[in-house]
Amino acid sequence: MDLEKHPQTPVAPAVPADRPASADPVGSIRASDADRDRVADILRDALAEGRLDADEHSDRIDAVYRAKTVGELEPIVGDLPAAGRRPDPVPHAYGPEAPAGPTDNLVAIFSSSTRKGRWRVGARTNAFSLFGSVEIDLTEAMFGQRLTVINATSIFGNVEVRVPENISLRGSGTGIFGNFEVVTLEAADPEAPVVVVNGYSVFGNVEAKPKRGKLIADLHNRLRKHLGH
Fold it and tell me: How far apart are CA 34 and CA 189, in angstroms?
């Protein structure tokens, strides 16, 4: 007896309920240096605004430069207002943040390196001392941006940072059989420059503190005059 043949409707394979409909194509993209710098800038602004303290900023910066994908970067700034749309810049005495440029490097290996006097401070400075001495004196410097970050490393050496008494000074670091000391300072003027010193010392010394009696005179007009505004 012949069986009546009926066309069969193809059945789609079952999809597990816990499997997402599609992977996030953006979050899985490998992070570039520009992506990491963008997130680092958001963290820098949050530190300057007081949304993060120095320890939180240091921990998150470490996570930024360990991140491999864009998806790993976004949660680092997920609780900050700048994570979605950057707010319109608020004018302040020091103008807009300085454009990206080369990092200043001060290196002393069995020698000494000094930066002092009247000079223009960049947004980032790296100081490295190996059996040497680095001195950074900001008491007469011109601040072209509100936030200045100094990354200091001392191995059997010494790094000293001196700032005027009317700016904010913050920092975070570690001393391994050595000394890492940042004297926290909060300026009365909310638009005063902020200097953040991060790093570590191994059998050495990293020290940042205000220089007694040294002040930046006329905070609101000094840089405007220098820039010709």
Answer: 33
Q: At what angle do helices 54-66 and 33-48 cross, to 10 degrees?
A: 170
Residue 209 burial by CB count (10 A; 0-12/13-18/19+): exposed, middle or buried?
A: middle
**Is the dihedral angle over the CA atoms 22, 28, 34, 38 positive or is it negative?**
positive
Cα–Cα distance between 10 and 45 in angstroms, integer? 57
User: What does the pLDDT look like over 4-17, one tens digit per residue?
Assistant: 555 554 444 444 44
Residue pLDDT, tens place only, 59-77: 888 888 888 888 888 899 8
Q: Where are any strands of DSSP class E within the chain?
A: 104-109, 112-115, 120-121, 124-130, 133-137, 142-143, 147-155, 158-163, 168-176, 179-182, 194-202, 205-210
In this structure, the dihedral spanned by the alpha carbons of residues 84, 86, 87 and 89, taken in order and rounded to 10 degrees, is 180
- Residues listed for the chain: 229
Put simply, whether the predicted model's pTM sits higher than 0.70 gets the answer no
Name beta bridge partners: 180: 206
156: left (phi over 0), alpha (psi -120 to 50) or beta: left
The H-or-E segment that residue 62 falls in is: helix 54-66
